[in-house]
Amino acid sequence: MEQLEKEILALLKQDGRMTAATMAKATGSDERTVTKTVAALEKRGVILGYTALVDDSAIDPDRVEALIEVRVNPMYGRGFDAIAEDIYKFDRVKSLYLMSGGYDLCVFVEGKNLREVASFVSEKLSVMDKVLSTATHFILKKYKIGGELTVADENKRQVITP
Question: 29: which of 35, 72, 148, 153 lies 20 to 30 Å off by Cα?
């Protein structure tokens, strides 16, 4: 990967709304080159999408999120991929990761309430043929999302400029 691509990606991770003109100034490049580079990164699948970091509890305090650890029996010839594919097809699943450690997969799900998430685990996920066990952890409070604090940081010093 080229240095310019790395620099552009770092800038977009900081602020997905950053303009090509701003990125050009920051990288010492021209706006047209930045625009072409971003388009190429999108086409190659390096940039998967753009999103806003939102504190969902501020919108709907009853909404529930959970992290579910899943232990599975991998499928011969396909490993974990076939099982992961079966799981990520559910709309309720927001993220899915293959993990090292005691569990194989880490699944992030959302629901309108606790019952909806529990229902998903008991009726859809844990009954799958290759699923051996699950451990559900409900997210109670988010302190940091995508590198951004969701709570006031009293330890952070304020810089006052004259």
Answer: 148
